[in-house]
Design brief:
By secondary structure, the chain is mostly helical. Helices cover about 75% and strands about 0% of the residues. It has one domain: Tetratricopeptide repeat domain (Serine Threonine Protein Phosphatase 5, Tetratricopeptide repeat, Alpha Horseshoe), CATH 1.25.40.10. The longest helix is centred in the first third of the chain and has 15 residues, at about 5-15. The N and C termini lie far apart (about 40 Å).
């Protein structure tokens, strides 16, 4: 990553910390146009879209992040929650299964413990 890209990422993180997600997205879209977009750009885009309630785009960018870095638990969880928000439950649990079949979960353990109390867990994750 170039120094200028690193500086943009730092600005993006500062904007996200201030809940200025639309400003962060503007900068991230500039980075996305770079042919060597890295997974963190897509992950940050997914996060900002999630925070402004655009769950369809959030899911889109978390998927892009996971194509580049399939072992990212944060991106997987972001995708899971985005899909739940747009009521794509089967796809959400499919992503959970994909992640768990190939990786050692840390944060998913907490989520699974909470989900086991719901009927949705048994329906979509038998």
């Amino acid at each position: 990553m170039k120094k200028s890209d690193e500086e943009i990422i730092e600005k993006v993180l500062a904007f996200q910390n201030k809940n200025w997600h639309k400003r962060a997205l503007k900068l991230l879209h500039e980075l996305e146009s770079n042919e060597k977009t890295i997974s963190i750009v897509y992950g940050l885009m997914g996060s900002s879209y999630y925070q402004i309630g655009d769950f369809k785009n959030s899911a889109k960018y978390f998927k892009k992040c996971l194509r580049l870095k399939p072992a990212s638990e944060l991106a997987s969880l972001g995708l899971f929650h985005s899909l739940i928000e747009i009521e794509k439950y089967k796809d959400a649990f499919k992503e959970m299964k994909r992640y768990l079949s190939n990786n050692k979960p840390k944060m998913y353990k907490i989520l699974i413990k909470e989900l086991k109390e719901t009927s949705a867990f048994n329906k979509y994750y038998p």
